[in-house]
Design goal:
single chain, alpha+beta, 6 helices, 28% strand
């Protein structure tokens, strides 16, 4: 068994992101088997990593936001004159203000955990918490993403079977999906991965054109009755997995 950088181990164990781990280690807030460690130190995977109370308090204070992103906003940084979805996180757009009051400090370090195309709408997660980001978009993420997809065109004979399993994008086979018809022009997709414009490209491969796409769920967290363009804080009892 080889030793691994402690920050990498902390990320793999879901304690925090590697960047956060380095910051905690630099402040002397991380112990391995009861011993304070330094930047660049390594440990075995079976050793016990613990966080100081200061690091734990900082993690607890971090917020995660659920936004119903409208069409026309980009998920991350501004692109070609389009505004980032994060600009919608303002006090006047908060849904259900009784649970937690908006603070401007909640915008610092707030980043999208997963893309939603500019011409798509629905559930977008923005978070200050590296643990949640890793859970949603890490390479080994098991979080389901559910979409309602309106389409035009005529699907190929075995197209529905191919959408469920059998398509390739960018030279890589896609993971099995769960795709079914809701009505004559609307499909439900449940994906376990998130390649760029994946659903639109999958549909094109079987003769369909996407004319509307809405993400309605990520894991156990649903969009529900959150209005378009409004946002809320992730509730204390909510978990994506």
């Amino acid at each position: 068994m080889e030793k691994t950088r402690i920050s990498k181990l902390m990320s793999e164990k879901g304690i925090c992101s590697r960047r956060e781990a380095d910051a905690y280690i630099e402040r002397g807030w991380v112990k391995v088997d009861g011993r304070v460690v330094g930047l660049g130190d390594k440990a075995y995977p079976n050793q016990t990593i613990t966080l100081d109370k200061m690091a734990q308090a900082r993690q607890t204070a971090r917020v995660t936001i659920i936004l119903n992103k409208p069409v026309g906003y980009v998920s991350g940084q501004a692109e070609s004159g389009y505004r980032p979805a994060a600009t919608l996180i303002t006090a006047d757009r908060q849904f259900d203000k009784s649970r937690q009051r908006f603070e401007s400090g909640h915008l610092r370090g707030l980043a999208p955990a997963g893309r939603l195309d500019i011409d798509s709408q629905g559930l977008l997660v923005l978070t200050q918490d590296g643990r949640i980001a890793k859970q949603l978009i890490g390479e080994d993420s098991e979080v389901e993403k559910e979409y309602l997809v309106r389409v035009e065109g005529r699907i190929q004979g075995n197209g529905l079977n191919l959408l469920n399993h059998g398509l390739t994008l960018d030279g890589q086979a896609l993971r099995p999906a769960e795709v079914s018809w809701l009505n004559d022009d609307q499909l439900k997709f449940i994906l376990h991965e998130g390649k760029k414009r994946q659903i639109r490209r999958m549909c094109e491969l079987v003769g369909l054109k996407v004319v509307g796409l809405k993400r309605v769920r990520m894991g156990n967290v649903a969009l529900a009755d959150l209005p378009v363009g409004q946002w809320r804080y992730l509730k204390g009892h909510e978990r994506f997995l």
